[in-house]
Amino acid sequence: MTLSSTATADRIYATGLRNQWHPVVPSRFVAPGALRKVTALGEQWLLFRRADGALAMLADRCPHRGAPLSLGKHLGDRVACWYHGVEVGADGTVTSVPGLPGCNLEGKKLVTSLPVREVGGAILAWFGDEEHPEPAELTLPEPLTDPAVDAFLCYAEWDVPWRYAVENLLDPMHGAFLHHESHTMFAGDTTAKFRIRETDRGYFFEKTDQRGVNFDWVELCRTGVDWVDLSIPYPPSAGPGGPFGIVGMVRPVDEQRSGVFFWRYRRVEDWQRASWRFLYKTLIEKRHWEVLEQDRVMLEAMPADADQRENLYQHDLGVVRLRRLYRAEAEAQSTA
């Protein structure tokens, strides 16, 4: 079995939608020969690399007595539970019961194993329910697969519900206020009108009276994994390469925590790529972490029931559209 299909709509809405891909952790978090415990969608998982470097992701629960496999030993293509030595392969099959060779547990697939992909320095996994164990088609964000684009992955964990982290990205207007002191988001009007523009993969939420000045638009993309794309103009001091883009994803950890992934990218080639990378690491990266810290401080300071005591207006259309979408999917998944 995979994630329980008996979860209520409220539970799914709080801990993350099923039957889609989600980012899990940066690839560097899973070193060869090591076991990495991770919480995602309210459940405990284990990541490790097989002897050939390929990733495996298992439920962090020994099929014998329920002990965490993450406390066990890495044996190349399998993991041995510390408690009684039961060995589990990368596909979730029990390969050995050392205490009772020939035990009827051997050869049975008793541990959930999730399909995984690596892209742009991050690990993605398919979180299906009992009715959808096989992964759906995954179309990766173009900026992470285009060889003419160079990107840096920034990862952090915030004590905020996963939806608040996504909603923050679907709210361009906060850039003109919360991030006003930023070197990239000081310009433009502090008033605006917005519209939603539907696409074949999601929707744009964009200003109708300003473009290319500040955080003026964002696109929600649903391509097997949910991600957002946005662009912020760069001053000439940031070097060649045009606007600065961000691909954002969020991992639901549990009801109150999130893992946030931000790929900062620019379209650069040849000598421009070297210039961009140098400027980013020596000057720009620190400033961008300061902007992310402003988001973290604001979101973590909001009460857990903030979305129950709101008075929304036209600038919040993108957030309202997102909530309706996610709530409807949570309801559908719980009913199924």
UniProtKB/TrEMBL annotation:
Alphabetical list of InterPro entries matching this protein: Cholesterol_7-desaturase, Rieske_2Fe-2S, Rieske_2Fe-2S_sf, VanA_C_cat
Entry keywords, A to Z: 2Fe-2S, Iron, Iron-sulfur, Metal-binding, Oxidoreductase
Keyword Ligase: no
Positions of the Rieske domain: 21-125
Pfam families: Rieske, VanA_C
Iron-sulfur in keyword set: yes
GO MF term set: 2 iron, 2 sulfur cluster binding; metal ion binding; monooxygenase activity; oxidoreductase activity, acting on paired donors, with incorporation or reduction of molecular oxygen
Name listed for the protein in its UniProt record: Rieske domain-containing protein
